[in-house]
Design a protein that fits this description.
Elements lengths: L3 E17 L2 E18 L3 E5 L6 H8 L7 E6 L2 E2 L5 H10 E4 L13 H11 L5 H14 L16 H13 L5 E5 L7 H18 L2 E6 L2 H7 L2 E6 L2 E7 H6 L4 H8 L48 E2 L5 E2 L10
Parallel strand pairs: 3-8, 3-9, 6-7, 7-8
Antiparallel strand pairs: 1-2, 1-4, 4-5, 9-10, 10-12, 11-12
């Protein structure tokens, strides 16, 4: 089994929200709730869940763009939250992020070439000529002609802007790339091109990916393992094949049942979901209000994420006992 590049232990991020102007009582919202997770070296770990479940917050915690309320993220055995200034700068060189919004993630006042070589300038790698050459080489690697180097972000299509973002992330030759919904704003045909590009780059540069998405078809195409997130918790973790062929958690089944089939002759599975998400439920399973398989124990005990077999883990009291 590959070694863990990133080990996440008890990671929690909570926010205190006021209940109203005249009410001083604050509600505690858990964006990330006591997560334990490993990202293995050389893998693509897909992180999937509906909007608001905490995927992007987890990504930002791993990149240290936000600080946790508790818990740790170890990169190569060292806690990233204990880093000083120099160690943090080295960490940022090794861990880069590809963002969802291709407009706001690029500086409109910088050309494509300036954007891509900016990380080299920040980390003081090479001289001015070497930085320019490295940026041009990376442009070619992601499928952008060097004739486009002097253009600005508004002169590119969405797919081209995302290629610039990918080149900017890769120019430092990091070990870990965190891709936060990198294709969700693109047309389907362009999505396929970007996903294939990311696969090729992973092979060429021996990268590790944490790939965040709400699109199960995208996750299936690109991931080796898949972590399913619900209300700040990982509720299922398994290999790509196991998640899609043998889902254990009712929430995973709900997500898969909502994906349209490309086969018009195939009978769709229908899964009835009731109730609303219980964002403040502090007792029992967080999915109990919506689960059609709820048992008495679900209201009393929050199921931990436990190994189901050698390759799967699930946080459900009914794991393995749910009938098809």
């Amino acid at each position: 089994m590959p070694e863990a590049l990133v080990e996440i232990s008890g990671l929690t991020k909570q926010y205190a929200l006021s209940s109203g102007f005249f009410n001083s009582r604050k509600r505690i919202i858990y964006a990330v709730n006591n997560i334990d997770l490993q990202i293995l070296k050389g893998e693509t770990l897909g992180l999937v869940g509906e909007s608001g479940c905490g995927k992007s917050t987890l990504a930002r915690l791993i990149t240290r763009l936000e600080k946790p309320s508790s818990g740790s993220v170890n990169f190569k055995g060292e806690n990233i939250y204990s880093y000083g200034k120099d160690a943090l700068k080295s960490y940022r060189r090794n861990v880069q992020m590809i963002f969802q919004d291709t407009y706001s993630s690029l500086n409109p006042r910088k050309s494509a070439l300036s954007t891509i070589k900016e990380p080299l300038t920040i980390h003081r790698l090479g001289n001015k000529k070497e930085r320019g050459e490295a940026a041009l080489e990376m442009m070619a690697k992601v499928g952008l002609n060097r004739e486009l180097a002097g253009r600005y972000s508004h002169e590119f299509s969405g797919g081209q802007r995302q290629r610039i973002g990918i080149a900017r992330a890769l120019v430092l030759h990091p070990e870990l790339i965190i891709a936060d919904e990198p294709v969700s704003s693109l047309d389907v045909s362009i999505q396929a091109q970007i996903l294939n590009l990311l696969k090729d780059l992973k092979k060429d540069y021996h990268l590790t990916y944490l790939f965040v998405s709400h699109d199960l078809n995208v996750i299936r195409f690109i991931s080796d393992r898949v972590a399913v997130m619900y209300l700040g918790k990982i509720v299922e973790l398994a290999t790509n094949n196991d998640i899609y062929d043998r889902p254990l958690h009712p929430y995973t089944r709900m997500l898969l049942a909502a994906v349209p089939s490309g086969n018009p002759g195939r009978k769709e599975k229908v899964m009835q979901i009731k109730g609303e998400a219980a964002v403040e439920n502090d007792q029992g399973c967080p999915f109990q209000n919506r689960c059609p398989y709820q048992a008495d124990i679900c209201a009393k005990k929050d199921p931990p994420l436990e190994n189901f077999d050698a390759q799967s883990a699930c946080a459900c009291h009914m794991a393995g006992a749910i009938e098809e």
